[in-house]
Write a structure and sequence with these properties.
With 263 residues, this protein is α/β, with parallel strands linked by helices. It folds into two domains: 3-90 and 168-260, Rossmann fold (3-Layer(aba) Sandwich); 97-165, no CATH class. Helix content is 33%, strand content 28%. A six-stranded mixed sheet has the order 7-8-9-4-10-11, with helices on both faces. Strands 1, 2, 3, 5 and 6 form a five-stranded antiparallel sheet that branches. The longest helix is centred in the C-terminal third of the chain and has 18 residues, at 180-197.
Length: 263
C-alpha cells in the first residue's frame, strides 16, 4: 500500500509520494509554460494537508496530478503504492464548482458513486441518507440542485465524495465561492467530519487562515514555476481558535513567506 516512516514515535503510511515532479504545459502558440518544478512530497495516511501559495503557483495542477487527472512531464508519482495514470477508486475529488447532476435529486446525487460501484439501491440510499443528516441536509433528499443555496450545494458535493468511503479526498478550493458566513460554517462542519473519520485530505486554498484552521500540515508554494518553499506541521489542538496568538503567528509567518516569493 505504501512506505512506512516514523514520525513522533508513530509509524505513518506514506500513501502519496512525489519525487522530482515537473509539469510543463503548451500554450496555444506552442510556447512552454512551466507550472511545477522539482516537487518532492510525501503525504501520510490520515493527514490533512493544505496547499497554499500565490495565484499561478501550481497548487491546483499539483492536486490534479495526485488525483490522476493530468500527468507529470517528469518525475515519479505513486498513490496507494501504484503509479497513477488515471483517477483511482480509493480517492474522490471535490471542486470549487459543485459538480452535481442537475437532473438527479439530492439523495440520487450523493448515492451516484455507490451506484456506479454496483451497490444495491436500498444500501446506497441508506448510506447517502446518513451522510446527508451528518451535513445538516435532512429533509432535502427529494430536492434538486437548483433549489439549494451555494453552501448547501457544496455540502451535497462533499457528501457525494464521502459516500464512497474514499481513503483520500482531494479538494480544490471547495469553499472559495462561498460568502464569509457560509464558508466559516463549512470549515467547521468539514473539520468535525475529519476529526471523526480521519481520512487523508489534500486541500487547495488561497486562504492562509483557512489552511491553518483546517490542516495538520501546510505546504507553501512559490510563484510559477511552483516549488515547495515551506512544509510545516500545525502544532495546534482542535478545535482551533482563530483569535489565538499562536494561530495568528502561523498566519503571519505563512503570509510573509508567500509575499516574499510571489514576485
Amino acid at each position: 500500500m505504501g512506505e512506512f516512516v516514523k514520525l513522533g514515535g508513530l509509524l505513518l503510511n506514506q500513501i502519496i509520494k512525489l519525487k522530482g515532479i515537473n509539469k510543463t504545459f503548451l500554450s496555444q502558440n506552442n510556447s512552454s509554460i512551466k507550472a511545477l518544478k522539482n516537487i518532492n512530497l510525501n503525504i501520510a495516511d490520515n493527514e490533512f494537508v493544505c496547499l497554499i501559495g500565490p495565484s499561478g503557483s501550481g497548487k491546483s495542477t499539483l492536486l490534479r496530478l495526485m488525483a490522476g487527472l493530468v500527468q507529470p512531464t517528469k518525475g515519479k508519482l505513486e498513490v496507494m503504492g501504484r503509479n497513477i495514470k488515471k483517477p483511482i477508486k480509493e480517492a474522490a475529488m471535490v471542486f470549487q464548482q459543485y459538480s452535481l447532476l442537475p437532473w438527479r435529486n439530492i439523495i440520487e446525487n450523493v448515492a451516484f458513486g455507490l451506484e456506479i460501484r454496483g451497490v444495491a439501491k436500498e444500501k446506497r440510499y441508506k448510506i447517502a441518507n446518513n451522510i446527508l443528516k451528518k451535513f445538516g441536509l435532512k429533509g432535502f433528499n427529494e430536492s434538486y440542485p437548483y433549489e439549494l443555496s451555494g453552501g448547501m450545494k457544496q455540502r451535497v458535493a462533499i457528501a457525494k465524495a464521502i459516500a464512497i468511503s474514499p481513503e483520500i479526498i482531494y479538494m480544490d478550493e471547495p469553499f472559495g465561492a462561498l460568502d464569509a458566513f457560509t464558508r466559516t460554517k463549512m470549515q467547521n462542519s468539514f473539520k468535525e467530519y475529519w476529526v471523526e473519520d480521519r481520512k487523508t485530505i489534500v486541500f487547495v486554498t488561497h486562504s492562509v487562515e483557512e489552511a491553518v484552521f483546517l490542516g495538520t500540515r501546510v505546504i507553501v508554494m512559490s510563484a510559477r514555476p511552483g516549488r515547495i518553499i515551506g512544509d510545516y506541521k500545525i502544532d495546534l489542538p482542535y478545535a482551533r481558535d482563530k483569535w489565538n496568538s499562536d494561530f495568528g503567528q502561523y498566519v503571519k509567518k505563512f503570509t510573509k513567506l508567500i509575499n516574499a516569493n510571489s514576485k
